[in-house]
Amino acid sequence: MPEDKRVPESSVIETSTPESATARRSRYTVLVGSVIFMAVILLVGLGVVVSTIIFRAQARRAGPDQALLAAGGFGIAELPIGHGDRLMDMKLDGDRLALHIGNPQFEEIVLVDARTGHETGRIRLRAPTDFAGNN
Q1: Which of residues 57 and 120 earns the better pLDDT score?
Q2: pLDDT > 70 fraction of the chain, expressed in percent and rounded
Q3: What Cα–Cα distance (Å) separates residue 52 from each residue in 7, 18, 49, 58, 130?
Q4: Residue 74: phi, psi to the nearest 5?
Q5: Which residues make beta-bridge pairs with 93?
Q6: Of 18, 62, 81, 124, which has the most beta carbons under 10 Å away?
């Protein structure tokens, strides 16, 4: 005769307790809130990626000046010099650019900020005069 292998009901230990409807609802609310928060984070990240791609594509299409601006450069800087003047020499020292400009009548050094392209000053060079008053 086969043995009966059933466990009597009195010896079964109940491992799960019935959950109240309010507790289930609060866990469900937390889960839904977490999913919505993660979806918002994903959408914001996607927006940043798409806007960066569009910005870089427009910078390339706009030309080299706009591409330089997008890369942190200053584009094209125009420095006024007189008619007939020419660039005689140029030196770069860190963030300073010194341009030696001149013509047969005079010479000057134009100082430019290499990061921004703005002129920071001019030094006019002139022939030394005699201290006695004779030129």
Answers
A1: 120
A2: 67
A3: 67, 52, 5, 10, 64
A4: -115, 5
A5: 96
A6: 81
Question: Do the strands 107-113 and 96-102 form a parallel or antiparallel pair, or are they unpaired?
Answer: antiparallel
Coil, strand, or helix at residue 76? coil
For the segment 53-75, the average pLDDT, to the nearest whole number, is 66
- Which residue shows structure tokens 């010194």? 98
Strands (E) in 5-126, as ranges, are 86-93, 96-102, 107-113, 119-125
- How many Å is the maximal CA-CA distance in the chain? 141
How many Cβ atoms from other residues are within 10 Å of residue 101's Cβ? 20
Q: Report whether 122 contacts 109 (CB < 8 A).
A: yes
Residue 13, pLDDT score: 58
Residue 50 phi/psi, 5-degree rounding, is -65, -45
